[in-house]
Amino acid sequence: MSSSLNIVISGGGTGGHLFPALAIGDELQSQNPNILIHYIGSKFGIEKDVLPIKNVQHSLLPIRGLQRSLDFNSLGKNILLPGRIISSLSKIKQIFNEIKPRLVIGTGGYASALPLREGINRNIPTLIQEQNSFPGITTRWFANNVNKVCIAFEEAQSMIKKQCIITG
Fold this sequence. Notes:
By secondary structure, the protein is an alpha/beta fold. The protein has five helices and seven strands; from the N terminus they run E-H-E-H-E-H-E-H-E-H-E-E. Strands 3-2-1-4-5-6-7 form a seven-stranded parallel β-sheet, with helices on both faces.
């Protein structure tokens, strides 16, 4: 699996992050069938149901997003978050060591944050594809550190300091 054409595509939680990731992977493979795509998502997002059905190479992390509501249930989930981050980082390092990706693409959502971070730390080319007119937290956190940011809506540029590529 150490081919020079290995690509990690990460994103999920919702279909708005997962389905663009799948579309990007499909298009890349239609242009070059030798590209190996490895999807990374969360055990708690829609991808846990969709990726096995799609029969694609994937890994699901034990990560979930920060709960922003102020109730007891959310507090309990947030207390577990540091352990989930540590466990997810360990799994990402194993994945990257095994497949040696040449590119990391993040399509947003909490599931894309840690793979993007690992790609940046390893000096692997990284790209964010933001499909919303209001960029999400992951995009805003990582936009200045990735190599390229692609946006679907011109309005998103005003919230991202780095010059973006408008892809529509």
